[in-house]
Amino acid sequence: MEKQMENGSERVVLKVEKLRIHYATPQGDVIAVSDISFNLYEGETLGLVGESGCGKSTTAYGILQLVQPPGYIVNGSIEVDGTEVLDLSEEELRKFRWTGLSLIPQGAMNSLNPTMRVKDQIIDVIESHEGKKSDKQSMRARILELFQNVGLPNRIYNMYPHELSGGMKQRVCIAMGVALHPTVVIADEATSALDVVVQRIVAQTLVKVKDEIGVSLIVIGHDMGLLAQIVDRIAVMYAGKMVEIAPVENIYAEPLHPYTRLLIDSIPSIKERKPLKITEGITHDPRNPPSGCIFRLRCPFAWEHCAEVEPEPIDAEYKHEVACHLYDERFEERRANAFATFANP
Amino acid sequence: MGAFSLNYLVRRLLVFFLTLWVAATLIFIIPRLAPGDPITAMVARLTQQAGFVENADLIIEGWRERFGLNDPVYVQYLRYLTGLLQGDLGYSLARFPSTVSELVGRALPWTLGLVGVATLIFFSVGNLCGALLAWGKTPRLVKVMIPMSMIFTSIPPLLAGLLIVYVFGFLIPIFPQAYAYDYNFARPELTLEFFANVLYHGFLPAMSIVLVTFGYWALGMRGMMITIEGEDYMILAQAKGLKPFYVLYRYMIRNAILPQMTALAVSIGTLVNGVVLVEVIFSYNGMGTLIFTALREQDFGLIQGTSFILITTSALAVLIIDLSYPLIDPRISLEGR
Amino acid sequence: MAEDKKVKDAPVAGGTKQAGVLNRFDNPWLNWKFLSGAGILGFLFFLIFLGYQLWDTNLALSARSPLNLPPPGFTNWRGQEGVPEHPLGTENSGRDMLALIIVGTPRTIMVGVIAATVGMLIGILLGFMAGFLGGLFDDVIRLAVDIMITIPSLLVLIVIQAVLGRVDLLTMALLISIFSWATPTRYIRAQVLSMRESGYVQMARLSGVPVRDIMFKEIMPNLLPYLGASYIGNMQGAIISMVGLEVLGFGPQRIPSLGVAIFFSIEAGALFRNMWWWWGIPTVILAIVFVALLLINLGLDEIANPRLRKAS
Predict the structure, then answer these.
(1) Which of B33, B36, B96 is CA-nearest to residue B63?
(2) Cα A294 to Cα A284: distance, rounded to the nearest angstrom
(3) Model-level pTM?
(4) Is A337 within 8 Å of chain C by CB?
């Protein structure tokens, strides 16, 4: 897979700042997303990874303004091309949707309206943003072109969702997602429900369409192997926090955050059997996160300072940030020691 | 599935014909289960009631012939079924020599009209109210008003009819208390005036059905809408930035109406029960009043015939709804399963 | 990255109030619809019980009281005033309306209870068989249910009654129950089918739990609110059938129930002689019973299906 221009664009198309999302429960609010900040650059593909329950999907739905009750956005700022999404009125938000931010949903199986033909579900999104079109022929041509882009045959034009296979439905969702050439497309686990072969083909379709149309893309997933092949940068989330965001080469070659290290080390490979270094699940109560660093309870390198101060993202390299005290220059010595012991237990 | 696994169309037709057969058989068997000879008993009761029955011999003879009481039961049964197939419902006992078919033919259109119009109103109003109750963008005032208008829900149409005819036919007499049209029309005619008069007379009976029924549909629709709001495609519809009203009718109502159609087919029987009794309250010129009169006159042939035809009509209505269902749900096709 | 926060007040969740969220997790049986329906019914029973203690119920028989008296404070078409001895008035054969209500109401409800119970028991049996055993059982039961639901029960009951003449309440209840098993069967079958496919029942089957135990230990407890709602619905249907038959003139006439009282009043033209107390009081009592049953039913629906609890 060819890698994009070495440094990518400098233009920020999506700027998320201090985004915080809670789920209200009778025992108190569960913190699903905790003050996340990141940038998405023009033409970039960003992968958002983490264990289930780490808040990656909630982050996506927060950006899209689709958090369902009892979830709610506590604070934050989401800017798309300079537009503050949270400031939009209801009607402005409606118009902004799909042209600014579009979604390729997780459950493509059930994401299409069962009583509408596939073409009508694409036509409706075009017409509700561009006005009613009287020219049926050019509309048809436009939709068939979208189908072609995602590798769908023309014959499905008049079909209903139940007549399509899972992979086809997912492609319909991709075609629909890019129909209006949005600024940012968010693909939420778009391939997880498919079998492995179809997964790969759909993922490749996604990248191809993205390059052709020139949108920026956020891909949410838990399959690090699959993501590595299609994204430019990877953001790693743990318990509602973004612990590291880095170009994909960096993160596989030299992961910085201890959690990222554990994740990368746990990717199985054929060449060697690896012990699972990370145990599953978030160990703390999501209603009462521990003081200081969120990961310190499971971190092999944690020391007193981690319990006292919450780590801020540190610029480690170009477009590479990590939220860990080890990368604070004050603790350089500790870092060297820590990694030495880790490498040779 | 088992041996009866059949495609949609065949299954629906099977249910339709089996329903007719079961109804016909019940109507055939029931009088024979009663102790004694039903005909003699009936005529005896009639004689007792009226003191004297005109053409009593003729009637008994006609009925003996009709039932062929001296033949073996299976011969009687087959003859009876063949008769039904040819549309022969026999004679009216009390209005001999009128045939049951004649009397039913005169009454049935009124009942069909009343039920049809009432169904159209309660189904559309009920579903609309239910959709508005569940929809997030409905004005608060409307959400308060709709449940208030539903206070009659669950009261039998018969009792609602009583209350309505008392209030609007007697206390504030702005509507006629009885009959399907004024009796200064000698017979139904094809004029605008007559049509208006029919509507005027039909208003209260129709309201008695609509007022107690539409609330059920509203509640059912609300439940369906809430289920649909949780579907994945609703989140995508929101993300797509479609216009709210479009989402309401094309995504929510369009999908929620499907189970409501199924429910309509299931409720036809109950609906007909209610209409029969409402007609009695309003002396409406339909099947309900006919069967009530037949009961008064102990006209057993007419009771049987009217019941059978009303059951047939209900089954036919169910069949029509079931067969039109594939037209609105693309997932069901007449050939497939 | 340190920048001052822009605080937004939950823009997406909109009106989601903390308290509203909390309520959903409360005890589901503390449902106001369920409780008020049960309360109305309970209060009605209490009044009837009180009536039996304090009022002479023999007055419900004919010719025990003056005829056609209105409730006190009203005048009938003959100009007679109501008297305090008959607080709800009397009808044209000299029955005291209050005594009639006290005697008639439980009789009406009793028929509903018997018919609904019989229908429900058959419905549970057939619904479980169809839903759990499947195959031929399912096909035959479904076919029978479809047929029974299509036939308007009143019409067959009329034919039966036309042959039998007037019958006692128990017979009437049993006749009605012939038609009151189809709807519960259909409903229970659907619920059993959906529960059968659910994860925990699948797990139980895989781990070799006997079918009987799955039915009664796994499925039944989860079905209870559904069964309750179905039972109440069945009772409504049975009482509607009963009142219908009574108004058509079938019903025990010596000690009338509510429907029979309405039949008598219609026969005597009470509607147009403005004897509103005669038909109106039984009608209002029945309406109260129906509204209470509806509230219980809606409450049970919400208990069974938490999504419906969404504030409207």
Answers:
(1) B96
(2) 9
(3) 0.85
(4) no
CA nearest B229 in A: which residue? A68
Q: What residue ranges do the domains of chain B occupy? A: 7-85, 100-335
Q: What are phi and psi of A93, to 5 degrees?
A: -65, -40
* Whole-angstrom distance, CA of residue A45 vs CA of residue A232: 5
**Angle between the N-to-C axes of helices C153-164 and B254-282, in degrees from 0 to 180, rounded to the nearest 10:** 30
Contact B88, B304 (CB under 8 A): no
Mean pLDDT across chain B: 86
Is residue C99 within 8 Å of residue C55, measured between CB atoms?
A: yes
Is C25 an 8 Å CB contact of chain A?
Answer: yes
Which of A119-133, A297-311, C276-290 is predicted with the least confidence, judged by mean pLDDT? Answer: A297-311
Sign of torsion, CA B200 B206 B210 B211?
Answer: positive
**Rounded to an integer, what distance in angstroms lies between the CA atom of residue A337 and that of residue A341?**
6
Question: Using a CB-CB distance cutoff of 8 angstroms, which residues of chain C are in contact with residue A37?
Answer: 1
Q: What is the mean pLDDT of chain A?
A: 84
For CA atoms C304, C307, C310, C312, the dihedral sign is negative
Lowest mean pLDDT among A87-91, A274-278, B5-9, C206-210: A274-278
Contacts of A20 (CB under 8 A, 6+ apart): A31, A33, A34, A35, A36, A73, A74, A75, A76
B31, amino acid identity: P
Q: Which CATH superfamily is domain B100-335 in?
A: MetI-like (1.10.3720.10)
The predicted pLDDT at position A277 comes to 57
The enclosing H or E element of A36 equals strand A30-41
What pLDDT digit, counting tens, does each position of A285-320 carry? 778 888 888 888 888 788 888 888 888 888 878 888
**Structure tokens of C201?**
């029942």
Of A253, A249, A225, A224, nearest to A236 (Cα)? A224
Cα B241 to the center of its chain, rounded Å: 43
Q: How far apart are the C-alpha atoms of C208 and B147, rounded to whole Å?
A: 48
Task: Note whether A312 contacts C: Cβ–Cβ < 8 A.
Answer: yes
Task: Give the pLDDT confidence score for residue C22 in this predicted structure.
Answer: 44
d(CA C183, CA B248): 31
How many Cβ contacts (< 8 angstroms) between chains A and B? 78
pLDDT at A11 over 80: yes
Give the count of alpha carbons within 13 A of C131, CB side only: 25
pLDDT at A337 over 80: no
Report the alpha-carbon distance of residue B257 to residue B269 in Å, rounded.
20
